[in-house]
Amino acid sequence: MLRRCWHCHHHVRHSVYRQSRTIFDDIRMAATKKVADYFYNSYDEKRVAEVGPDLACAEWLMKCGATSVRLSDGRVVDSLRQLKSVIKPDTPVLINAIDASDSAISESGFAYFKGCAGIATLKLNFCDFVTNDCIRRLEPLKNSLTDLEIVTNGNISDQAAYWLVKLTNLRRLHLYFLPCVHDRTGMLRKLKVGLPQCQISFPKLDRVGYGYGSEKDSAAGESKS
User: Fold this and answer.
1) Which Gene3D superfamilies match (predicted)?
2) pLDDT tens digits, residue range 30-50?
3) Order of strands across the sheet that contains 172-176
4) In whole angstroms, what is the distance from residue 202 CA to residue 188 CA?
5) Domain limits, the chain
6) Max CA pair span of the chain
7) What share of the chain is helix, strand, coil (3-state, %, to 5)?
């Protein structure tokens, strides 16, 4: 149900990025977020106690329409049905990588990251409800997270740099098409100073997509400035 609803909203979202947003777009976005928060992003402490933090987190991600979750035993899960069919509550597995692209995850759901000690890779691409506060809530992952992507997001602003530099184990950070970042060069400079061991790319917007083609050029070009 969420995937069907979310994909309909996804098409609306892309048109919003291409044109000026109207009050109706904001109302539609707010209404969709309320539904997602109420039904899919509420933190269930009892469920965490029952199945453990990693499986509870995986369930939350699948309910929100995340693309995939890779577990420490090598399995890749891309649906709630698959997760329930192959994983038992007492299975000793950790989450290693998350592709949350195109999902409805939002601030309150980020509480599920507490206790997840093995998450090294996280993609937050095309996630409409991810905000600066969501970046703050990544703090439980600071010891394990090494690779982070945030692409096409109308909520992330320059202020996110304050929270990103606290993720001190990051070795790769890729940012692209963040319209609310007003000083891209300044933000990139702060990130490079705060995360000296991290390969950081924040290419100028030159095409629709993920900005991967400009990633190396961005890292090299900005390092000269």
Assistant:
1) Ribonuclease Inhibitor
2) 666 766 675 689 999 999 999
3) 76-77, 68-71, 95-99, 121-123, 147-151, 172-176, 199-201
4) 7
5) 2-224
6) 52
7) 45, 10, 40
**Do residues 123 and 149 make contact, with C-beta atoms less than 8 angstroms apart?**
yes
pLDDT digits (tens, 9 = 90+) for 89-142: 777 899 999 999 999 999 999 999 999 999 999 999 999 999 999 999 999 999
Contact assessment for residue 89 and residue 111, using Cβ atoms and an 8 Å cutoff: no
Percentage of the chain exceeding pLDDT 90: 68
Angle at 196 between CA 159 and CA 107, to 5 degrees: 35
SS (H, E, C) 173-212: EEEECCCCCCCHHHHHHHHHHHCCCCEEECCCCCCCCCCH
DSSP code at position 88: -
* pTM of the shown model: 0.84
169: left (phi over 0), alpha (psi -120 to 50) or beta: alpha
Cα–Cα dist 32/80, whole Å: 21
2-224: CATH architecture: Alpha-Beta Horseshoe (3.80)
Rounded to an integer, what distance in angstroms lies between the CA atom of residue 177 and that of residue 186?
A: 15
7 CA to centre of own chain: 17
